[in-house]
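We modelled the chain as a single entity of 328 amino acids. Its sequence is:
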Amino acid sequence: MKQISHNSLVCAVDLGGTNLRAATIDDNGEIHDRARFPTPHTDNPTEIVSALTAAVTECSKPAEARGQNIEALCIVVPGSVHAQTGLVVNAPNVPAIVDFPWKDAVEASLGGPILIENDANAAAVGEMWKGAGRGYQTIICFTLGTGVGSGVVLNGQLLRGIDGTAGEIGHTSVNPFGGVKCKCGSIGCLEVYASATAIVRMASELLTDYAQSTLQAIDVANLSAKEIARAANEQDACALTLFERMAVHLGVGIANVVNELNPEAVVIGGGVSAAFDLFAPRAREEMMRRAFPVPAKRCRIVKAECGDDAGLLGAAWLASARIELARV
């Protein structure tokens, strides 16, 4: 993945389930200005457009005061995006944004060239540009958060597929028989075993068998992946068993993509990656047990380095790349 050489400033926006974050970023990946707004909880996508507009306006003010222009805008969303039209074609966790003409609506509100991209795709690009994927040409990036997002960079190119839905590894089934139903409508998806939401669900299910677990002191409604990880680090048997199960399912998912795509590295990000040491070694064991030996031995499993900024950085790179292409 080449570096962007021209001097530009772009605005990147990450539409999350809780917050809508914006940042101005230069061609070296340096973040200059930030803004954060609550994501509207609504079925009306135009309300989200209004919040996007407010975030971009607020974030751009300091740049404009310095005499800098925003050359492009990239918005990353939690759903599969058709690259040519900017339409979100699939978003199991945020159905309100599906089939809404984001590109037209935001351009009408803000003007200028606008790019819409899947958040996990952008995170993969961000990690390849400035994070744990530096120096590689083929990586898989998992974002383990409320759901399981994933992005694929293959031979230096973001893999989108004909409809923009490629790389949705979180919605590949790792337990089709008797598995848990996923929000996408399928059964036994990786997302229902490796996300923060899944970790909390599995903990509540396991606790009935672990009367001595320290997690018993926490009301089920207040359980969080962070608290469960804390318990596991303190050698709580229930929490350790849970991360073992989560790691096995994640290892199955990784083994599948290792056999299919032969990546150099699998990068694990998202909030659950804070517990990387609790699940990554076991996930690698499962991957080695199931995948072809040669690609499995080659593939590294590494913790993401860009944190919450991965999607913003990837969005900036993609927007800058579009500017560069337009100038050729």
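As a brief sanity check on the tokenised model: DSSP finds ten helices and twelve strands in the chain. Confidence is low (pLDDT under 50) at residues 2-6.
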